[in-house]
Amino acid sequence: MVEDVPSVLQRAWAAGVTGIVIPGTDSDSSFSAVNIARLFPGVYPAVGIHPSEVEKLGEDADAEIRELAELSTVVAIGEVGLDYHYFEGLDAAGIERVKFAQKALFTDMIQIAQEVQKPLIIHSRDCFEDIYEHMAAQVPNHPAVIHCFTGSIEEAKQWLELGYLLSFTGVITYKKNEALREIVKHVPIEQMMIETDAPYLAPEGFRKESCEPKFVRNVAECVAEVKGVSLEEVIDITTETATSFFNIAL
Ligand SMILES: [Zn+2]
Question: What CATH fold (topology level) applies to the domain 143-250?
């Protein structure tokens, strides 16, 4: 809720957060991200259309994102990508149609990122082979971060080989996610980012609460513990990675 923004930000700054990137998922939320960033220093907008929105798009959606993407305040294109998780009520032909539409939308979003020369924030869910093939062919040399990474170690390696970054959320703190913490252990800290994916995925111990940016500290603490390094080291390195990736000066 927009009226909550000042208090959400205040709690984030109090927790030691120094900058926040807020991505859009469609034209309206991208526009809101731009407006919130205008009002609150330390907040940086990303704009894009999420694959789950593909069925609801108005005709001008791409053009609206392109226009926003050109704003100097916008730091990235995202969330964009593919999501094959929910195909409820669709038959095989329907599923193929949605996959095709998602790929076309993703291609458009990639093109915008290339035109404005801004990095990509990638949403990838249950679609590794398709999205990997798509990106390896279209943007092997474009900066990209795979947000909320929850894949396998093989997938992690393949993304890193393409030069992309992996971003981890509160999901790594969940008790049952030992396998994901094992991946965190093996991903070089210089090739990772941390995030909350608020309002989803509050960390262990807070799962009944709405997730908000202050919880990125818990993600950092988990990374520090898993990798056996200090919290300061995690904070310093991931902040350096994020500021250089998004080209922002905190
Ligand atoms: Zn996402």
Answer: TIM Barrel (3.20.20)
